[in-house]
From TrEMBL:
InterPro entries linked: DctQ, TRAP_DctQ
A Pfam family hit: DctQ
Organism annotation: Gallibacter intestinalis
Span of domain Tripartite ATP-independent periplasmic transporters DctQ component: 24-152
Family: Belongs to the TRAP transporter small permease family.
Name under which the protein is recorded: TRAP transporter small permease
Length: 161
């Protein structure tokens, strides 16, 4: 069981993102084939690809947080010793965590409003809350990943790593 949890912790975002991007490529490839080879267009392909792209966008924030891939000023942070870098990162992660914890209730309201209205997508006819759940899921995963990074950096500041 511990092995499965570690695997999910390590590769969750990568697996989902690879699946989403591969599905987008296949769907758009089929659309191009149908449009040019068969002279017919699929009505649902662009809509589904757009929704997959939305999910990929929100999940990629979590992936980047986990891998510490973000826009930052590395030259400034590099001036500090190891503990100073870790302290700077703890402060940074704290600010990020506050931001995403602030955003989660708004994402919940957005998701819940889609459930209440019962809106469906025009071409696919799927409930829009499937799409509007992406910010909520993404922000929750980001908060979890920030907490994980925060613990690592905090232990470095304390000298335990």
């Amino acid at each position: 069981m511990k092995k499965i949890i570690n695997c999910i912790d390590e590769y969750l975002e990568e697996i989902i993102l690879v699946f989403l991007l591969a599905a987008m490529a296949v769907i758009m490839g089929i659309q191009v084939f149908c449009r040019y080879a068969l002279s017919m267009s699929l009505t649902w392909s662009e809509e589904l690809t757009r929704y997959l792209f939305i999910w990929a966008g929100f999940l990629s924030v979590s992936y980047c947080t986990k891998k510490c891939i973000s826009i930052k000023i590395e030259q400034f942070v590099a001036l500090f010793p190891k503990r100073g870098k870790a302290l700077f990162k703890v402060v940074n992660h704290t600010i990020e965590l506050v931001l995403f914890l602030y955003l989660i209730p708004f994402a919940w309201k957005y998701f819940y409003s889609a459930i209440e209205t019962g809106q469906v997508s025009p071409a696919l006819g799927i409930p829009m809350y499937y799409v509007q759940a992406a910010p909520l899921a993404g922000f929750i995963l980001v908060a979890i990943r920030i907490i994980q990074r925060w613990i690592v950096e905090f232990n470095t500041v304390r000298g335990k790593e």
